[in-house]
Amino acid sequence: MRLFLAISVVLCLLTQPVFSQNPVSAGFNRVSFGVDAGVMIPFTDVKQRDYFPKFDEMSFGGGLKLGYQFTPVFGLRGQFLIGKLDGRNDSQNRNFETELWDVNLSGVFSFSKLFSPRWSKNDRIDIYGVLGVGMVSYRSKVFLNGELERSYGYTDNGQEKDNRLNDLTVPVGLGVHFNLSPRLDLGIESTFRFTQTDKLDAVSRVFSKNDVYNYTSVGLIIKLGSQTRSMRWASPSVVMYPGDVNRMEFITERISEVDRRIEIIDHRLEESTYDSEISELRQQVQAIDQRQNELNNRMSTLAESRPAASVAESSVAALLSVYFRLNSAAIDNYNYERIASAARFLYANPEVGIELVGHTDITGPSAYNHELSERRAQAVYDVLINDFKVDPARLSISHRGPDDPLSQQNLSINRRVDFIIRSK
Predict the structure, then answer these.
(1) Same domain flag for 100 and 178
(2) Where are the alpha helices (DSSP H) in 89-197?
(3) Which of left, alpha, beta for 315 (phi over 0: left; psi -120 to 50: alpha)?
(4) Are 205 and 224 part of one and the same domain?
(5) 210 and 259, same structural domain?
(6) Residue 415 contacts by C-beta under 8 Å, 6 or more apart in sequence?
(7) Contact by Cβ (8 Å): 245, 238
(8) What is the pLDDT of residues 167-204, one digit of tens each?
(9) What's the domain range around 286?
(10) What is 406-418 written as a DSSP string?
(11) How many structural domains comprise the chain?
(12) Rounded to two decimals, what is the model's pTM?
């Protein structure tokens, strides 16, 4: 009873902080249902070996599981297990048979996400531990030289079934989950069930240790709910640390404020005595664009002289990239002119199309960066469609987040959208 109360207190303390409202963790499936089957191995007084049982001491069992995932690191699981235990000791000419079922409530702790939250395979493989408390209900018989020696849960010299014996059990184990699809997982688990009884083998001795049995199983877990994402496979940094997201939003607001101030300064500079210098810079940009157009015309001439498939196979980024400020998908005037150059290229080369590939630097969570890179590519796409009336069929969008940097030192170079020439 003391052990039961201690484990209950530990589970309550672990689950208390995850009930707080967290808008970032919304939109995930949390409930799962599983079916498993495996082998049951007794570690009792009647056995052939102390640690490595023989094959004829293994029996089969099966069970059902119902789980609720509070965070990517912690969840609760209820389990029902039914099966048999068989053991023997040939030196004593003694063997036993036990039929049992086990009901328990366990905490499931993800070691891989807890100790290595940045592991690249956390969304596919989950290494976890199990600790819980429950009840085992059983009937047992032990035979000496083939004759019934003693039984529990039976009457009439072991011929008629009587009320089962019930005792406390504590499951402790390890397992691995594999994410097969948005709705299905594969689980492999091995748990030792420490009981508060010495009668699982129907042999009860003075000063003898309580009986233990192992259940090693393989099962399928179905993820229930209307969402497409499961809390078990969510990113711990996004779900468990929403303060980082709030800080990112605060930084974004400050950056937007700085951008507004820069626009005001730019406007004032245009009206100041530096108009001539700005005009000179714009002429330099126009000269670059003119050289770019000449290069595009040469490429167009080469494309006409050979099959169009060769342009698609080369996938050369012949156009300049569009660059963005930190954590922004807004297009400024300087980059607007680069998009205009891309539009001129498309009008001059009707046989080709362009793939818009978005990128970010390594700042921030990976999931957020992939979403930001997609918004950047979408922003360039919208300008080409809405402002320059480019045929949408000639454009495509992809995003790589921080996975394809141009520079390891200058992070601003990686905040970009590339133009990739593709065959129409």
Answers:
(1) yes
(2) 111-115
(3) left
(4) yes
(5) no
(6) 323, 324, 325, 326, 359, 360, 361, 376
(7) yes
(8) 999 999 999 999 999 999 999 999 999 999 999 988 88
(9) 242-423
(10) S-SS-GGGGSEEE
(11) 2
(12) 0.54
